[in-house]
Amino acid sequence: MKVSNLTWKIGGEAGFGILSTGKIFSKIFAKKGYSVIDNNEYSSLIRGGHNTYTIRISSNEIFSTNKDINILVALNEETIRLHQEEVTYGGYIVYDENDCNIGDFKKARKDINYVMVPFSKIISELGAPKVMVNNVSLGASVALINYDLEILKNVIKDIFGRKGSEIVNLNIKSSELGYKYIKKKLKINVYELEIVKPVSKMLVTGNDAVFLGAVRAGCKFYAAYPMTPSSILHLFASIEDDYNIVTKHAEDEMAVINMAIGASFVGARAMVATSGGGFSLMNEGISSAAMTETPIVIVLCQRPAPATGLPTWTEQGDMLFAVHSSHGEFLRVVIAPGDPEECFYLTGEAFNLADKYQIPVIIMLDKYLSESHFSYEKFDFKNITVDRGKLLSKSKDIDGEYRRYFNTDDGISPRVVAGIKGGIHIANSDEHDEDGYSEESAHNRKIMVDKRFRKIKKLIEEIPPPKIYGPIDAEITVWSWGSCKGPILEAMNILNQKEKKVNLIHFTYLYPFDSESIEGIIEESNKNVVVENNKTSQLAKIIMMNTGYKIKNKILKYSGRQFLPEEIISGIEKIE
Amino acid sequence: MVMDKTKSKYSKENYNLKPGDFNTERKPTWCSGCGNYGIWNSLKKTFVKLYLMPHEILIVYGIGCSGNGANFIKTYAFHALHGRALPVATGAKLANHKLNVMIIGGDGDGVGIGGNHFMHTCRRNINMTYLLHNNKVYGLTTGQTAPTSDKGFKTKSTPSGVLEKPVNPVLLALASGATYVARGFSGDTSHLSEVIRKAIKHKGFSFIDVLQPCVTFNKQNTYDFYREKIYKLDEIKSYDKSDLNEAIKRSMEEEKIPIGIFYQVERPLYEDGLKQIERKPLVDHIITDIDINRLLNNYY
Question: What homologous superfamily is domain B19-297 in, according to CATH?
Fold first, then answer.
């Protein structure tokens, strides 16, 4: 059967390489030009527990994974028990009778096909380690959709190459045996993907994209404590020598943010990343950056909280926390990219905004966006340019007597790279006068608070308004932010085929909030609904707080899992 | 063993600053008789002795009476949050290792709220100098117990007397791997200046526990109290500064209080392990058009 879309899922016990197997499967399609989006699910443990990897492959542009699975590869019985319901009418379950007792499952779903592949037997006959059942399943899956075995072999070679030729050959051999088994057993191709333009696509996660954007933007100092999104720490550490970057795994998140502030104070672009718990610890540091007017970029990857919560799952529960983070009133920018492409370009922008306005900039991710792979033809890195604002890096740039917190018209005072002659000053976490000396007078306090807040005028003008997707005159307007973008776009495209006329207003800049432009859009919308991956509809709250407008319809999900388009469709269909 | 790591481009011939040139436009706000004055004077004297210019020095301050010194010493200064001076200094030094970086903070700042940073900064051996102003009391918050207060010490927060044993900053620094560990006394500025001078010149992380009377909130650890108990390690001819066990033993003495250098060894710097700053400081790299093609290709 020719298809333009196909969803594949593999499930098994933790420790059996589910994540790397999934990544290989995503890669073989991206390499030949298909659109790929994947999602992995795992628990906070190293062995045992249940891991899955879901991949949606398409010959068209796609924006998220979806609910219906065409092929489910079950490396254990639990996978069938947990995910059989997700298999679409006429879909396939690939299993090994050695690991799974299939009888009762078959009775429950007479509409799907069960394909037995003796994973363990193939592996033991080959004399390969048990973990290589993965490769048998990859080969079998490639055969099921009449795909290219050679590209699978090449990707396996790329990924396992450094482990030596013996391991590579065993991996390849086991995938070949899986492939041949299916080809022999099934005379027809069960699925066949429509042909696409053969352009090799890159496969990146949100974490990858933030990292790439930061390197391009000239981030020279990266500090973190191991916590989601720890892959950014690993990525920086792996290239720090080549790109002249210092990566520091510090003792705690207070050290992390303060080290970055120190590096930034002497003129290096600096970034940190963490999730909610670490962000809580960093909070005092954020206000130190604000008071001393030291630029800093903070990546906040949201996981379901409070406390340790669900540390390997996803949620959008920290928006108001980020917008209002730390003590005192001060200006900051909060950015929430919707996909890895936005992660890349907006990270570049985050560094510019931090430098130009000398303020903290927070980039909000969530586990789903951080760790899911999306395919793109390319990132045009030349589109990230560097603007350091009023930074003076040489003594000769200093005009007359230097005053660090000079009360300028736009509120932005020239900042020197500490260490140059003529630029001596105190970067002071106490309230201070224009020279940086501690100063507690009422008169001065008001001047300095106003100076720091005056930057908002220029900032608001520079920050783009939320982006509108879909028909302007839609009947229903969805309001959302961050990673909900993809599932909503999928839902919108499907609903608009049925002429429901839905559009999306997507916020990538959450703060500062431009009330005027938002009020304009709200008046034009008849039926508004927020879609958020949280319990308390934080976007709706911030809209109400700033405009007084209450969005009554809410589609919320807070199970620790991201939205699927189908769930949004059924939510929208219920709106009266 | 001691290597000159000061980066001043200035020498006897072209240097004409006096200690007073390190004064700012602000007059100190410390109590009359405060130990901070002795430290302040020693520091300025030392800068002159080392031909250091104000712009070649970055001092990161914690919060407390000592931290308020940010306003009174003319160098680049970062007045950090309470307990967070060490990580700010670390980031600054790693981003520009050509700066002379010093840290000034109190005992509550350093071994109370910032204790974790203290331990880790010692073991890192980054080339900076840390002056811990140890007055064994919280002065700026008007007299509560400090982590260094003696057991039984009565304060507003411990009216019946402190129940805990005091933290011993010298012992902690030795145990954590600092390569220069000394103690000074704010009542002996010529000795203190010498300890500071050697600390700045030391290649590695140098730590000085400065005993400093708080004339307002600590009536126990007074100038007289210290003068009676103090003796100088450098007056003991047989004292071997490279012997860690001996240093630890001396650091635990309570009846008599040793001052001077307890311990000094040379160990590779943290910075020496960073290839990326071998050629030049991070801040000197041009970042306007970094080519990331090589990285992007990894994702295809």
Answer: Thiamin diphosphate (ThDP)-binding fold, Pyr/PP domains (3.40.50.970)
